[in-house]
Write the structure tokens for this entry.
Amino acid sequence: MSVQPAKAEALERANGLNRQEGPPLHAQIRDILHRQILERPLLPGSPLPTEEELQKQFGVSRSVVRQALSGLSDLGLIRRQRGRGSVVAAAPVLRRHIQRAGGLDEQAAAHGQHLRTHVIAVEHAPPPEPAVEALNTTNTWKIERIRYLEEVPVAFMRTWVPRDLFPHFTKELLENASLLGLMREHGYHPAGGPRQVQAVAADTDLAHKLHTSTREPLLLLQGVTRDALGHGLEWFNVWHSPNTVFDVDAQVTSQPTPISQEHVRRLRSLAQQIESELAALDPSTG
């Protein structure tokens, strides 16, 4: 009688399930398959095991398997095809122009995509030293948000804004709203500011928020946004998932600067004046 439980315990250890404690079985199976997709054993376009194969692999009912697959589908990680099984979906690509301040929703819409914002927290917290200098205050909101593209997290944003300028900000107000749009509505018009991009490795917290692996390379965009008068409106860090493409409109610095018509008119007038004076100095032209 003791053989069967021992076999079941060995199977659980082999397939990574914990039936004694922890999340429901369907959530555990979903997370196991999720890790396999993130760590690349399951590549985009490759088929998942069938429902029957997953039943045998994990020793669960078909309803549990279907719940797990439904969870992966909700995350945008797989495509379920009637009569053809499930395949790993290609991760949606977020494209943004590095020269543009904000307007991420508009940029996504231009590519036929829709971004969703989830606000994690809005709290009164002092900013880091670079933000104090940029915003000229320590009285700030710290705002943490995740941006989703087709239900896949593509960016985690941590932003500090002056409370004196925006005392009304709340988690509910910012949910699925444009932060810069709210600033405009309250009389502050963002104009832009310096930005920098660098590659960083995902720590455990970032990997969890962006559904990626620890030490996976991320693109960190850091900067400040000011209004036309130079007032600091926000200081931010945005960590982008690896499936982000930054578009840059590069210009050759040695390219001749266009000459205005007014400048051409002044040069012609000066040339005529020089010719007139030279004629006056040379008697032979008389």
